[in-house]
Amino acid sequence: MSEINNIDALTLTLAQEMRRDPRIFLAGEDVGRRGGVFRATKGLVQEFGENRVVDSPLAELSLVAVGIGAALYGLRPIVEIQFADFIAPAFNQIVQEAARFRYRTNGDWICPLLIRTPYGGGIGGGLYHSQSIEATYAHIPGLYVVAPATPYDIVGMLRYALRVNDPVLFLEHKKTYRLIKGEVPDSDYMIPFCKADIKRKGSDITVIAYGLMLHETLQAAQQLIHEDIDIEVVDPRTLHPLDRDTILSSVKKTGKALIVHEDNLTLGLGAEISALIASEAFEYLDAPVMRLTGPDVPAMPYARTMQDYFMPNVEKITTAIRKLAAY
Q1: Residue 215, in any domain of the structure
Q2: Angstrom distance (rounded) from CA 225 to CA 320
Q3: Residue pLDDT, tens place only, 300-309
Q4: pLDDT digit string, tens, across residues 247-293
């Protein structure tokens, strides 16, 4: 077992996988000599050369299109979008092309494209470096959307992502890159998609959270022990398709559910999870399903005070849990 942070989990696993499979190559803005804006690809161009670690132009549409073409002809491309905010120009390629190739060809063609991108706020990035995009892409059948939040999950899910034959959007919360550390086994383990993880067992309330909000929720749960409120924390890990069984099983046990994410409230992932619980576990509920999210504003402000207002945090989560516990 080794203790590493999230960014090191990415870098080490990318290197291991590129050594394992010569079909894997990496392309993106500044991924080569600079090693990526967050240094996630540091040292890879020196080991694998510029044919397998490709610095691309500032052209996300073309970058994803090249990845699709390479995937269709037998390679295993990893495309890095420097910030999730800038993925919008590639929307058509991801949704209309990559996600639908298997379906439109009746399974004759596969598109094993891995798209990595840092998302989320809390680092003072302002409007164009703080967005959460998961709900938009979790609406698309044919596309896996995953958001591992610990070194253990990043390593296992990244390995798995490079073996599936469908496109994967791999979301990395940028604030957790160096903030979160954890133990990772030395074995070549993998974590299949669509398997949620119960990060903390409890009996009173189920809290469903992912990304940075997972860690905020775990801190909140620890604080509430002193108030005799026992929280079960479920990390979906795969945001699309969801692990319905684990979520429902937890809610049926506790009878209360809170969903926490920093994306906007309206039509965010919490709305889908709420609908799932209301449809499949209504008779087990002792209180309404609650959501704690970012507000419905166009983007995260730059000013620190306004950013803090936008972001859910430990204090807001504990307040929401206390309100739910009082029912």
Answers
A1: yes
A2: 15
A3: 999 999 999 9
A4: 999 999 999 999 999 999 999 999 999 999 999 999 999 999 999 99
For residue 100, the domain's CATH number is 3.40.50.970
44 shares its domain with 141: yes
- Among 129, 215, 240, 261, the active-site one is 129
Tokens of 66: 């090249």
Residue 202's domain comprises: 197-325
Number of domains forming the structure of the chain: 2
**Known catalytic membership, residue 129:** yes
Considering the domain architecture, whether residues 213 and 152 belong to the same structural domain is answered as no
The CA angle 250-188-164, to the nearest 5 degrees, is 70
pTM of the model: 0.97
Q: How far is CA 227 from CA 213, 224, 321, 325, in A?
A: 21, 5, 11, 11
Buried b / exposed e over 282-298, threshold 16 CB at 10 Å, is eeebeeebbbbbbeeee
Residue 163 near residue 20 (C-beta atoms within 8 A)? no
Give dist(CA 108, CA 224) in Å, integer. 53
Kindly state whether residues 69 and 163 are assigned to the same domain.
yes
- Please tell me whether residues 141 and 214 are part of one structural domain: no
Residues 57 and 201 in one domain: no
Torsions phi, psi of 26, nearest 5? Answer: -120, 135
At 220, which CATH number?
Answer: 3.40.50.920
* H runs (alpha helix) in the chain: 6-20, 44-48, 60-72, 91-92, 101-104, 134-137, 151-161, 212-224, 244-254, 269-280, 304-310, 314-325
| Token pair of 278 as six digits | 């209301």
